[in-house]
Amino acid sequence: MFSDPLFILVVIAVLVVLAILLKGISTFGKGGADSAKQSNKYMRWRIYAQGIAVVIILIFVFFRRTGG
Questions:
Q1: Residue 32's pLDDT is what?
Q2: Cα dihedral sign, 14-20-25-26
Q3: Is the dihedral of CA 42, 45, 47, 51 positive or negative?
Q4: In 22, 27, 32, 60, which residue has its Cα 20 to 30 A from 1's Cα atom?
């Protein structure tokens, strides 16, 4: 399974979402108006990355169910 390029792409997508989430959460704790703006920006990026990750996961599942 680890030699499957599509699986590796899924893992990378999930790790990118996790990294953006952790960066956004860490920015929440700093306080101030600039940190709030920065944190909101990271959370928007997380939503986009999460959507892309879900699409990649659905593609992975589709190809594995069809045997491709």
A1: 79
A2: positive
A3: negative
A4: 22
Q: Provide the sign of the torsion angle of the four alpha carbons 3, 50, 30, 26, taken in this order.
A: negative
pLDDT in tens, 41-67: 999 999 999 999 999 999 999 998 887
Number of C-beta neighbours around residue 35 at 10 A: 14
Q: What is the pLDDT of residues 12-35, one digit of tens each?
A: 999 999 999 999 888 887 777 888
Q: What angle do CA 41, 7, 13 make, to 5 degrees?
A: 5
Q: Give the separation between CA 30 and CA 36, rounded to whole angstroms.
A: 9
Torsions phi, psi of 53, nearest 5?
-65, -40
Neighbouring residues of 21: CB distance < 8 A, sequence distance ≥ 6: 46
**Domain map of the chain by residue range?**
5-65
